[in-house]
Amino acid sequence: MKSVKNSLLYLSHTTLSGILILLLMSIVTHKLSSGELGEFVLIQTYTVIAVGIANLGVLTAYDRNFFLYEKSKTKTYQLISSALIFVLFSLIFLFTILYYFKSFVFYIVPSGSPPEEMFFTVFIGTSALSLSQYYLTFLKNSGQAKIYVKFMIGNSFINFIITLVLLYKTNLNVLALAYAWLISNVMLLFALFSYHINEFKLSFSKNLMFDMLRISLPLTPRIFFGFLNTKFDKIMLGLLGSTQLVGVYYIGQLIAVIIFQFMTAIGKVFQPEIYRKLFANEHANNSLEISNYLLPFFYFSIFMALLIVLFSREFIAMFFSFEFEIAVPIIMILSIYYSSLFFAKVTGAQLIFAKKTHITTFLMFLGIAINVGLNIPLITYFGVLGAAWATTISGVLMTIISYFVARKYVTIKWQWKSIFVISIIFLCAVTLSMFDYVLQFPLYASLLLKFLTITFYFSIGFTLDIVSKEEIRKLLLRYQ
After folding, report:
1. Is residue 102 a part of any domain in this protein?
2. Torsions phi, psi of 440, nearest 5?
3. Taking CA 50 as the corner, what is the angle to CA 337 and CA 98, rounded to the nearest 5 degrees?
4. Domain identity same for 148 and 84
5. 181 and 85 in one domain?
């Protein structure tokens, strides 16, 4: 029941933070134009890529090696300290390089506001968040879900409040988003550092750092091209289209990505457990051991996707201006992509466990080739919807390819019959929602069909024995 409790804690954070960001963006889109919002999103995209490169894949290596030393407090503390010190100096080095070549940087980074102020403000905020991830990973892997959630919810509230204050009490306009991003993330890093300062002192271990680098360095090209791949749609929209298109696309993606955020929240429970089961070799005697464990997580992840797809039209109409109506089909298309990423989380763990991280680099190059090959023509001919389709098609193809590659090194036998049924229902819901958007069904007919779809999905959960009345009863009694 501890895993259930932690899942609920992480989900509470995801839900509350998601509500806050959606509410904030609803307010922001009435204060700023889609072009101004797109401007901030583009700069944030470039800084996330830059900071991701500076990390050199160390976070992934730290996440894996944590479980090798979790029984030794000394090595556990040395591991995180070594990672933090190394990445801090790496970020400082990158900042220096970017500042020295800022004329070139601002040539390729479009911005209507003072580019230097916007870019470096967002860069420092992103760097602070990057360093915070090491402390947060420590809390996650050590089972301190409650503390983790408190920090993250606090960060979301602070960002929400500061953004509103700067938007309405100053003349910063779009720069208000940048300064709120900086202040909230620096405060989060300082709070995490203060919380852990008495628990362990910063120290550097060359051996532990080299162990992490042996795993992380092969990931560096993958991280660069991986960030480029996931952000390529917005970059190309900015280059081939306009910041206005980027702003509209961002809103659609912001809502669709809730699916992935949901998976990430519950992934904080199931991903560490995958590593533990693999290290314990539990799947050797029972081939469905890991699949049986993961199937409920998959079922509820797709349920979240189902809700997002079915009610995207109503949500956009209620909270956003007419300028963002085109975000509805973007949400539906991208929901297919984000739903497929559940398997990507598992295949990634398989390759990292097998120490085959170099293979992910080749997979990433293939993914970029597919993504670029689709994005350029589809954006050119279909605009913002083309970007959504290109991202979805390339993402789903790479998920399938990664599955076949990963199982060569670590075999996880899936319950494909159940997965297929769940996936078909979800795709039918996407199709229904597309017709609803295009044909504009009457409200009563639209809502009736959607609630019938949800009811049928739950009935399938009981039929496949993924959800049981007894488990629900126990859960309600425990948390009532």
Report:
1. yes
2. 55, 65
3. 155
4. yes
5. yes
User: Would you say residue 475 has pLDDT above 50?
Assistant: no
Query: What is the tens place of the pLDDT at every residue in 30-76?
Result: 888 877 888 888 888 888 888 988 888 888 888 878 877 777 777 88
Pair (193, 279) in one structural domain: no
Dist. CA 54–CA 46, nearest whole Å:
13
* In a shared domain, residues 308 and 235: yes
Evaluate whether residue 156 is within a structural domain. yes
Shared-domain flag, residues 370 and 450: yes
**Number of structural domains the chain divides into:** 2
Rounded to whole angstroms, the Cα distance separating 444 from 31 reads 33
- Give yes or no for a contact between 117 and 249, defined as CB atoms under 8 angstroms apart: no
**Residue 11: closest CA among 403, 301, 227:** 301
Domain boundary among 204, 235, 269: 204
Question: What is the amino acid identity at position 108?
Answer: I
Do 320 and 384 fall within a single domain? yes
Q: Model confidence at 16, in pLDDT bands (50, 70, 90)? A: confident
Tell me the pLDDT tens digit for each residue of 72-90. 777 888 888 888 999 999 9
Please tell me the distance from the alpha carbon of residue 253 to that of residue 256, in angstroms, as a whole number. Answer: 5
CA dist 409 and 447 (Å) reads: 46
Domain span including residue 5: 1-204
Q: Assess if residue 212 is contained within a domain.
A: no
Q: How many CA atoms lie within 13 A of 421 on its CB side?
A: 16
How many C-beta neighbours within 10 Å does residue 176 have? Answer: 23
Query: Could you tell me if 12 and 479 are in contact, meaning their C-beta atoms sit under 8 angstroms apart?
Result: no
Residue 161 above 90 pLDDT? yes
Residues 270 and 398 in one domain: yes
Sequence-ordered alpha helix ranges (H) in 281-415? 289-310, 312-319, 327-353, 357-382, 384-406
Q: Is 407 exposed, middle or buried (0-12, 13-18, 19+ CB in 10 A)?
A: middle
Give the Cβ contact number of residue 30 at 10 Å: 10
Rounded CA separation 438/431 (Å): 11
Nearest to 236 by CA among 56, 31, 401, 394: 394
Q: Are residues 478 and 403 in the same domain?
A: yes
In total, the chain counts a number of residues equal to 480
Q: 19 in helix, strand or coil?
A: helix
Domain assignment of residue 214, yes or no: no
Tokens of 277: 């089961």
